[in-house]
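README, section 4: Worked example with a bound small molecule

Sections 1 through 3 covered apo chains. Here we extend the same pipeline to holo records, where the ligand is supplied as SMILES alongside the sequence. The molecule in this example is zinc ion. Nothing else about the input changes; the structure line simply encodes the ligand pose together with the chain.
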Amino acid sequence: MTDLSDLFDKKIYDTIAKVPNDFAHYEKKLVDWCNLNTGSRNYLGLKQFLPLLEEAFGALPGVISRKKLNPEKVVMTNGKVEEVDLGHSFHLKVRPDAPIQIVLTGHYDTVFPIDSPFQSVTPTDNDELNGPGVADMKGGILVMLEGLKAFEHYEFKDNIGYEVLLSPDEEIGSLGSAHLLHEIGSRSDLGLTYEPALPDGSMAGARKGSANFALIIHGKSAHVGRAHKEGISAILAAAKFVTSLEANNDNNHGVTFNCGKIDGGSANNVVPDIAIVRFNIRAPSPETMNWAVGVINENIAAISSNGIHCHLEGGISRPPKPKNKAQEQIMSDISRIAEGLGIKMQFKDTGGVCEGNNLFASGCPNIDTLGVLGGNIHSSDEYVLKSSFGKRAALTTAILCAYASGKLDAKALRKLM
Ligand SMILES: [Zn+2]
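The generated complex, written as C-alpha cells:
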C-alpha cells in the first residue's frame, strides 16, 4: 500500500494489511447468515441467529451478553394495545476502562418476512451478489467484525475500548432497543453504524427524524337502517383527519406527513365505532419535529367533538440527525482516513433513518453508513458488491487505528455537540 496519508505510519498500514481482502474469506458466513430468515417479525429465526453472532464475535476479546429489549406496544385492529416481546440484542464489551470508548451498532433483522419468496443468496460470477440482507446489513456486520479483528493486532489498541450492539428490531423502528442505544451512546465518544453505503460509495450526511403514530378513534355504532342518525362514524372522522393532516405536506419546514394504513369498522350495515389511522412523519430538525407534533395535535382536536374520542399511541422513534459541528468534524476525520486508503468519500443528506439518529440523540457523534457497498435494499433485487468487503473492513480498522494513535482526537468530538 502506498503512503497516502499523514495519519498513518507503517504500524498502522501493517495492521490494516491484516484485514482479509479476498471475498472468499467472507462468502461462507455471509451466505449462511443470509439464508437464515431473520425478518423483524420472525422471532424464532431471530433467536436462532443470536448464537451465530456469539460464535463469530467470540473471536474478539471481551464479554458477550444478551440485552433484553423493551416490549413493543402494538395497536391491534380493534383499538386495543398489546405488548409484544422483541427478544434480545447481542452485546459485546471490550476494554471498558480504556480512555477512548467507541460504540459500534448494527441490526440482524431484515425486512423480508418468513413467507417472503426472497429467502436465499443467488451465486454469481460477477461482482454483484443478490440475497436478503447481503447489504442491509449482514454484510455490514461481517465488515465490522473483520475490521475489529484486525484492529486487535494494533500496538496501541489498548487506548480504545468498545461496545458492539446488534439488534433485532431496527427495521421496525428500534423501539425495543432504543433505550440500549441511548444508554451505550451516552457513554461513548463516537459511534460507528454499519448501514450500507451507496454503490458509488456515497455516505449518509444529515438524516431527517422519523415518528410513527397510531391514532385510535372511537365513535358510536348504530344500525344503519333503524338508527343511522344515532351513530357517530369513526371512519368518517378518520377520513377527515387524514385529509386535513396530509394537507400540511405543502409546508416550508421540510416535514412530510404520510398516512400509511387505516383499520376499522365492521359490517356494511353498522355505523363504525372504531378506526385506527397509522401514520409517519419525517422532520429535518428537533424544531420542525416539534412543529409537526403540534400540527398532529391540532388535527386531533379538530375531529374530537360530537362524540368522537381519540387516543394517540406511538412517538418519535428516530430523532433528527442534523449536521452540527461534531458531525462535520467526524465526517472530515473519516474522509481523511478514507483518503489514506485511496477512497474518496462524499456525504449526501437523506430522509432515511437508522440507529445513527438514536446515537446522535444520546449526544454521540457518529457515522452510520460504514457497511458494505450495495443497492436496491428492501427489495428482492438487494445486492452487495463483493469487492467492497475487504475495503470496508479496512476502513473500520483504519478509523480505529487513527483514533487510537492519537493522530485524530476522539475526545474532541462530543465537546462539539
Ligand atoms: Zn439497515
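What to look for in the output: The two ends are 35 Å apart (CA to CA). Residues 209-318 form a domain with the Alpha-Beta Plaits fold (CATH 3.30.70.360).

Section 5 describes how to batch many such records.
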